[in-house]
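We both want to read discrete structure tokens more fluently, so let's practise on a single case. Would you supply a protein for us yourself, any chain you care to pick? Would you write everything just below, so we can both look at the same thing?
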Amino acid sequence: MGPAVRALGWAGRFLLVFAALYLATSLYSFSVMMGGGFALGKPAFRVTAEELAVSIPFSFNNTGYYDLNDANLTAIIRDKEGNVLSRAETLVASVARGTRVEGVHSVPLSIMKVFSGNMTKLLLEDDEFKVDISLGFRYAHALGFRLGFTDMSLPWGAPLGNLSVRPFGLRFNGTHHILRVELSFENHSPFLPVSGSVKVEVYNERAKLVGLGWVDVEAPPRSRFATPLELVVEDPSWFTGVGRVHVYTEAPFKLGPVVLPYG
């Protein structure tokens, strides 16, 4: 065996050892870094003058031995039925070893798409959306990884939570019989104001329209609203103390009738 052949043999062994060491240190470094190197914050709604979006804080803390490159953070927002409401990506070109990078992943949402098919439920009841997040990146300039995070949720606050319409009874003001009604609700939304008109129709148990009226409402996010209404009643015998109320609203979206029993 000549010197050249022996040299090639030693070179091959050296390359194998180097590759094995590189792979071992890369995987060990990756496991060390991922022990606390990537973190996601709590998703939250964010509102600007132009759009509604979901904001997800994130951070990379590269405590490993090698650089992290071409990070791709993808988030998909779904409703409880699994329908995709929005999808967006955020790219981070590089996180050098020994450095920390923080950012916010923003996923734009269409209000009309959010309410499509279940507007009544989302306006009246608190709910939640599902957030699926995946992270792809290269580590040590050679190893590719993709991680999935699928157990995140995004709470939804109903703008018209605990909606209530309660007739109090009749009184005579000298010219008309008046039915006094109290309208109340809680705006659980952290970002949607409720501002507009609400129409109330009161029926008795025989489906006879007792009276109707309109009222303007103004409820900022995370507030409670209550106001009395006075409805003119043509025939006081129509009010029996039992029946249902129909509520129509244009604040923040057209809705109705929402049917509520009373008595």
Helices lie at 3-34, 111-115, 119-124. The first strand starts at residue 38 and ends at 40. The chain has two domains: 37-154, 161-262. Confidence is low (pLDDT under 50) at residues 5-30.
